[in-house]
Design a protein that fits this description.
Blueprint (H helix, E strand, L loop, with lengths): L9 H28 L4 H31 L4 H27 L5 H4 L7 H23 L1 H20 L3 H7 L5 E2 L2 E2 L1 H12 L16 H22 L4 H23 L8 H9 L1 H17 L7 H9 L1 H19 L18
Antiparallel strand pairs: 1-2
Helix pairs in contact: 1-2, 1-11, 1-12, 2-5, 2-8, 2-9, 2-10, 3-5, 3-12, 3-14, 5-6, 5-8, 6-8, 8-10, 9-10, 12-14
């Protein structure tokens, strides 16, 4: 069975970008509350669970990117991986320098390669980027429903098999480097959800209209109100089996939330602001720890009331820095000197 993607629309792209904006907003808020305001970690677990939206949105975006390359007639794995390398690694290495400066701990080779990174999300998203072409080819061949059943069947079998490993090996397998939400390669599963959604005609003609009815905005608020406590509940630590089941519940919750937005039944409040955050989410995630460290080194300790005020006042400068960093990373990945055809010749960007 050969499948093709539904017609791409700016609405769908803005929606998935806004999803990343929601995710990074929850992650940043959870880090801020957990580190500087409250002593318990409920918000931190919710932030960890919110990363599922990143994987779904990234999978959706990768499906369109791969389709565009395929339609361009000069698809090249070398070019694809080169683009992804320059899109992900330079900013990550810059963030590593910030960690090095703040801790005086030199990153080892595993951290440098992001195989076992201080930022677990970076390792996970790089694994998704590596697997994306293979998953895309399978998805085009078998269709979204068989793809989804097969993918989650394999991940469920891998997770069940890992449960029977000796305790020391099981701890390694269920680490953030290999699993997500206590599902072996669970981040690949969430990424696969996004890929599959791109092959389902979800976006209706009414989605994202300039004058959306009040009910779509109200439904968007209700959807957010249901998402946030769901992330807290499903993100709480549990036993291995319960955590794996909660991971499936998180997949269902985030998928339903995404579908509700893509179909146009709901519209997010402050969508422009969320899209801005989503476009710069990778840099925001990477440089947030260095931002608070830099503020503390300047004497504006985030643990004090005055320090918190100065951190908030300086936030626009931090946002501008992240936007500039993201733009430079995108520019670098599109340079002709870093782009190749299959025969090794340079070729202009297909983006």
């Amino acid at each position: 069975m050969n499948s093709s993607l539904p017609q791409s629309t700016p609405v769908a792209r803005d929606t998935t970008t806004a999803l990343r904006g929601i995710a990074i907003l929850i992650v940043l808020l959870s880090h801020f509350l957990t580190n500087f305001i409250v002593s318990h970690d409920s918000f931190g677990h919710a932030g960890n669970a919110a990363v599922a939206l990143f994987f779904i949105a990234s999978g959706y975006g990768n499906a369109w990117s791969l389709e565009k390359r395929q339609a361009g007639g000069h698809f090249s794995l070398r070019q694809l991986y080169c683009d992804r390398f320059f899109r992900l690694y330079p900013l990550y290495w810059l963030a590593l320098c910030g960690i090095w400066a703040s801790t005086n701990v030199v990153p080892d080779v595993w951290a440098f390669l992001a195989i076992k990174a201080p930022y677990w999300f970076v390792s996970a998203i790089i694994q998704c980027a590596v697997a994306a072409p293979l998953l895309y080819r399978i998805l085009r061949r078998v269709g979204p429903w068989r793809f989804s059943l097969g993918l989650f069947g394999l991940l469920a079998a891998a997770t069940a098999g890992a449960m029977g490993l000796p305790e020391d090996l099981r701890a390694i397998v269920f680490s953030n480097t290999v699993s997500y939400r206590n599902i072996v390669l669970g981040h690949i599963g969430f990424f696969g959800i996004g890929l599959a959604l791109a092959f389902v005609p979800l976006a209706g003609p009414q989605a994202g209209t300039a004058t959306a009815p009040l009910r779509t905005k109200a439904l968007g608020l209700l959807a957010l109100a249901g998402l946030l406590p769901g992330l807290v509940l499903l993100g709480e630590p549990k036993g291995q089996l319960a955590a794996s089941l909660a991971g499936l519940g998180l997949a269902a919750l985030c998928t339903a939330f995404t579908v509700l937005l893509l179909t146009g039944w709901a519209q997010l409040p402050f969508e422009r602001a969320l899209v801005f955050l989503g476009r710069n989410s990778y840099a925001l995630y990477l440089f947030e720890p260095s931002y608070f460290w830099a503020m503390a080194s300047l004497g504006f300790n985030p643990w004090t009331r005055a320090g918190l005020i100065w951190c908030v006042l300086a936030a626009p400068a931090f946002l501008f820095f992240c936007q500039t960093a993201e733009s430079l990373a995108g520019w670098l990945s599109r340079r002709p000197m870093f782009r190749f055809e299959a025969d090794g010749k340079t070729t202009p960007s297909t983006r």
